[in-house]
Design goal:
Layout lengths: L3 E5 L10 E6 L6 E2 L4 E6 L4 E5 L4 E5 L6 E2 L4 E6 L14 H7 L6 E2 L1 H9 L12 E2 L1 H8 L6 H6 L14 E4 L3 H10 L7 E9 L19 H15 L5 E4 L2 E5 L4 E5 L6 E6 L6 H16 L13 E5 L18 E5 L8 E9 L5 H19 L9
Parallel strand pairs: 9-10, 15-17, 17-18
Antiparallel strand pairs: 1-8, 2-4, 2-7, 3-6, 4-5, 6-8, 11-14, 12-19, 13-14, 15-16, 18-19
Helix pairs in contact: 2-3, 6-7, 6-8
Length: about 375
């Protein structure tokens, strides 16, 4: 008799009642070496790699997205190629029975639970080598549930349209979904503000004008340009949370807020990578003239993927900018402290998409890049 070794959901590091099979690396019938990662499972707190305890051939006992209790069997490793490989699409029940004659039908844990819930007897799948939850759902005439939504705690009864183009759906891990649910409770906040101090070089002292002293300052467009370049390194901040999922924009479109008495507008400046500060100043100046004439077109104030709010001329030390719809982060520029010759950058981010560490790295890199550029240029304030 061929020796079989069960690969089970580990009890260590798993405190949940069940885990989700996130990704399976080997197919039934594949050869696997001892120590190879067979699959990845998700708990509410982490993603765990499950290694094969022996070398041999894989016989899967689960499918991706299955929920399995700790100790449940994920797969069996055998000395010989398993005979119970799941047929792709049997032509008829009779042919399927002939192909699998003499074999015991195998059921995934979620399939077994569903059959018990609906009072199905095992003979309804006679002749099948392996039965998954989707097979039971098909037999019942039900659509297989989208598990990821059940984890998010999001009210799916309210479904908004999302931007239809230039976005890529990223599956939200189970641990992140559990974090989202916890953050949505009354004692937690979904939005967090981190601050970083940018120190100006000594050459900016005694210039007679603040670095942000006019619309045509050299500092604001520099920050906008470097923000765009930082987003290329941290593309996860060019994204948004919607209906339990994360969508990442394929393109970067920097939004810049203007509020000169006729209401707040976020003008779209586009991708500023490779654009000079002078060219960015012209974009801001052109948008401001249109704003004052109430001539901004809809396409000029929509489609931004990350917003920068500049309150440097308002005498504020620090503030919390709002996150625009279909975005997950926003940058705020505060006023220069004349005594310390520095100013604050505030990064506000959606905890459903980001963590504090990644936000800190984002704003820290941006701060360093700004300071590096300022140390190599003159303190030109006005064009």
């Amino acid at each position: 008799m061929a020796i079989k070794t069960d690969v089970v959901v580990p009890f260590e590091n798993v405190t949940d009642d069940s885990i989700v099979v996130a990704e399976i690396m080997f197919k039934t019938g594949s050869h696997i070496e001892k120590g190879d990662i067979l699959c990845r499972i998700e708990t509410s707190k982490s993603v765990v790699d499950v290694e094969s305890p022996e070398s041999g051939y894989v016989e899967l006992m689960c499918s991706e997205n299955d929920e399995i209790k700790p100790g449940g069997v994920l797969a069996v490793i055998t000395e010989a190629v398993p005979r119970s490989i799941t047929p792709k699409q049997p032509e008829t029940a009779a042919e399927n029975t002939a192909k699998t004659a003499g074999l015991t039908t195998l059921y995934s844990n979620s399939a077994s639970r569903m059959m018990t819930e609906h009072g199905l007897l095992s003979d309804v799948f006679n002749g099948r080598a392996f039965v998954k939850e989707s097979d039971v759902s098909a037999y019942l005439g039900k659509k297989t549930p989208e598990k990821i939504k059940s984890y998010s705690g999001y009210d799916d009864s309210r479904v908004d349209a999302i931007p239809p183009v230039n976005t890529t759906l990223k599956r939200i891990p189970r641990w992140k979904a559990a974090e989202v649910a916890a953050l949505s409770s009354s004692q937690n906040l979904l939005i967090t503000n981190l601050a970083a101090k940018v120190t100006l070089p000594p050459s900016f002292a005694h210039t007679g004008k603040a670095p942000f002293g006019s619309l045509l300052s050299s500092l604001t467009p520099l920050i906008l340009k470097l923000t765009c370049e930082t987003l290329q390194i941290f593309p996860e901040f060019n994204s948004f949370f919607h209906n339990g999922n994360i969508y990442t924009y394929d393109l970067i479109n920097i939004g810049y807020t203007i509020d000169l008495g006729s209401g707040l507008r976020v003008v779209s400046l586009g991708n500023l990578h490779g654009t000079s500060p002078d060219e960015i100043n012209k974009l801001i100046f052109s948008a401001t003239k249109k704003y004052l004439k109430n001539a901004l077109k809809p396409e000029e104030i929509t489609g931004s993927t990350f917003t920068v709010t500049d309150l440097s001329s308002e005498g504020v030390e620090s503030f919390t900018p709002l996150i625009n719809r279909y975005q997950s982060a926003s940058l705020g520029i505060s006023s220069v402290d004349e005594r310390s010759l520095s100013f604050i950058l505030n990064i506000v981010f959606d905890h459903r998409v980001h963590e504090g560490r990644s936000a800190a790295r984002f704003v820290s890199r941006l701060r360093k890049e700004i300071q590096k550029c300022l140390e190599t240029q003159s303190p030109i304030v006005q064009a």
